[in-house]
Amino acid sequence: MTSLAFQVFLASLFFVLPQVSSRSTNLPNVPPGVFTVSARIEIKTTTSAAWNALVDFPSYPNWNPFVRSAIVITPDGAHLPEQRPVENRRAVFRVQIPPLPLPVTASTPENPLHTQIAFENITHIQPDLGRLAWKYISLPQALDSERWQAISSIGNGRVLYESREVFSGALAPTLRDTLGEGLQEAFEAQAKGLKLLLEGTL
């Protein structure tokens, strides 16, 4: 069994997260900003299946209407052999804002007018807490944002998926006015796409 396969096997055996209620949150407290986009959705699945879907970057095009490509790179821009998020590594995301209509597959054509490229630094990978995060790479004081995603068990075979990004900095008001609505739609669409994937309805 390969190292990666063995890690996934172990995760499926021992991946147990603290249970929360459908009204509480597993996202960390962060300082307020100029604006926030967020999404949350209940999914009939296991925490290990939800976690594996979120960290399986090569599979994003198969279900994600927002992030159409996610590539982990070295500091000099080379692709890492294992395309899963690693703390303190950089990632390049090709996104659709607003998102593509659901459902999507890898062959779903993108809208070039809505395509954005984002360079991010992967800041937190916390499988024991069911949380991961990456931070937008920008000039100091221009735009500061860190996207957190979290999964947690809410009992009865259900998982709560949450995602939130708080934007601050000099460019945040302009971003809010031009792309804020589309970003909110994109966060909600990714949550719905994840639900479709994990509940087997894609």
UniProtKB/TrEMBL annotation:
<dbReference type="InterPro" id="IPR023393">
    <property type="entry name" value="START-like_dom_sf"/>
</dbReference>
<keyword id="KW-0732">Signal</keyword>
<protein>
    <recommendedName>
        <fullName>Coenzyme Q-binding protein COQ10 START domain-containing protein</fullName>
    </recommendedName>
</protein>
<feature type="signal peptide">
    <location>
        <begin position="1"/>
        <end position="22"/>
    </location>
</feature>
